[in-house]
Specification:
single chain, alpha+beta
Length: 161
C-alpha cells in the first residue's frame, strides 16, 4: 500500500468516525432513540461512573434504548457540544476523544430547570462493513453545573405517564 493510499484510507475512516459520533449525539438530542441505537455495536461498554457513580457495564443496544426511553426522552431538551476530535485507528477499531458539554433542560417544581455535564468523552468504535459503530462510551467528568437531579426527575416524569 502506498503512503497516498494509506492517507486516503485514514481520511475516509476519520470522516466516517466523525459522522458516526455526530449521528449518535444528534439522534439523542433529537429524541430519535431508534436512530441512536442504530449507531451502536451489538455490545456497548457504557461508562458514566464518574458522572453517576454507577459502575461501567456492557449493555445491548436494547438496554440503552430502554434507559433513554425512561429518561432523556422525558427532558424538555438536551444538547451535546463536542470539541474537535482526536481520532486514532488500529485495524478494525478506532477511538475518538472529545471534550464535551452536555446540557439538559426540564421544567420542574424542585429547582433549576437546567443541568450541564462537562467532561471528556472517549468513544470506542468498531468497523462494520463500510460503517463504524460505537462499542464503548466513556464520560470522564470534569465538573457539573445546575440541578444534578434533572435525569432523576425526567425518569419520575416518565413513570407518571
Amino acid at each position: 500500500m502506498t503512503s497516498s493510499t494509506a492517507r486516503n484510507d485514514y481520511a475516509r475512516d476519520r470522516a466516517a468516525i466523525e459522522d458516526a459520533v455526530a449521528a449518535f449525539v444528534l439522534a439523542l438530542d433529537a429524541r430519535d432513540i431508534k436512530r441512536a441505537v442504530g449507531c451502536l455495536a451489538e455490545r456497548v461498554t457504557w461508562n458514566y461512573e464518574s458522572v453517576t457513580g454507577r459502575p461501567a457495564a456492557v449493555l445491548r443496544p436494547e438496554e440503552l434504548e430502554a434507559r433513554w426511553n425512561a429518561t432523556i426522552v422525558h427532558t424538555d431538551a438536551s444538547q451535546h457540544f463536542l470539541s474537535l476530535p482526536h481520532i486514532s485507528t488500529e485495524g478494525e477499531h478506532a477511538t475518538c476523544i472529545v471534550h464535551a458539554r452536555v446540557e439538559m433542560r426540564l421544567a420542574n417544581p424542585g429547582g433549576s430547570p437546567y443541568t450541564a455535564t462537562n467532561g471528556t468523552y472517549t468513544f470506542g468504535l468498531v468497523r462494520a462493513g463500510s460503517r463504524w459503530l460505537l462499542d464503548s462510551v466513556t464520560m470522564v467528568l470534569l465538573w457539573n453545573d445546575g440541578n444534578p437531579r434533572i435525569m432523576e426527575l425526567a425518569a419520575e416524569k416518565g413513570q407518571q405517564r
